[in-house]
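Entry
Fold in token form

___
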Amino acid sequence: MSSNGHVHGQAQPVENGTTPLLTAPDPSVPPDIAPASAAYPRRPLDIEPTSAHLQDLLDAIHRLDQILEARLPAPGLEPRSAHYERSALPEAQPPPWSDPRRAARVAVCCLGPFRIEVDGRRVDDLPPVKARSLFQYLVSRPNRLVARETLIDALWPDPDAQAAFTSLKVAVHALRQLLSETVVRDAGLAVVARGNGYALTATDLWLDIDEFQRRCAQAHRLDAGGRVDEALVEYTRAAELYRGNFLEESPEEWVLVRREGLKDHLLLVLARIAEIALAQADYHTCIARCQQLLEHDCCREDIYRTLMQCHAQLGQRGRVRRWYELCTRTLRAELDVAPELETEALYQRAMAGKLSTPSAASRSTALGHVVALARSAPAPGAP
């Protein structure tokens, strides 16, 4: 060690006179640590480095490198073992409306709590209830002319025609006021009157329901073409976009049909993700997606069967019994029916340890249902 406290061979002054940078490993550091530290950028030290300081720093870097290597799977690894303990669902992702890669200035989310953002800032000063409903109706059909009579039937189904017409004009005025405020004035949104109707013009809009339907359609196309791994990525992205039912806080009748249609797509997306996971022996992911699906439709007997099969493959017969009992009780309470013979037979085989993985025929049948729904699905933006 030199008189100024530097370790010889460890730090060299840079030409501009700033704090020295680490340039060489400590000879006392074991060889298996040096490669890990070499992978990280050199940074100025705020203290005079000593051999003890350097050793502590390299030890910490080595431990961090080991943690990162454990978290990131190496290329070419086989699917995870059925006994691999991990969180079955993907880690929480930032909401899509905060994604800086998305260039649209206006983001509107109708899945789950209603939300508007302009340039990344949430718009909290929403218009009165009817003006908000008008905006929600029009924004779910951007750049499409909607007749006044259609709007009145959807938003004011009961009052007399003259009162409803006046209420529509008041709602349009309130909505235009919101859209003309500073926060959204230059964002490309406007309510325009054309002929006997209104339209919401949107030149720079990202809408979650359109994105959800686009992801679903793309996943179905890839799946039908046999590109299952690529389809799985799109299915997963679609599922992440679904943060709740369409306009979940709205009790209005016009919302219900669209809400149920979008929910049907979600159920097929979750079922297909679970099916792919089951075929890959990724039982934990399959279980998590099945549970997520049952939150939206508790009477799906086929999903209870899949859960029983997953737990049987994991050797968890107690869980098999629990899901069978829940299936039986739910079907009796909700539909006043008993489980199907297929469910009873699978339960008996599972408890006896005689289950096998699903057949190719059953997977093909399920995929056929997915593709059929995709072909009948409306295009993004359709009512």
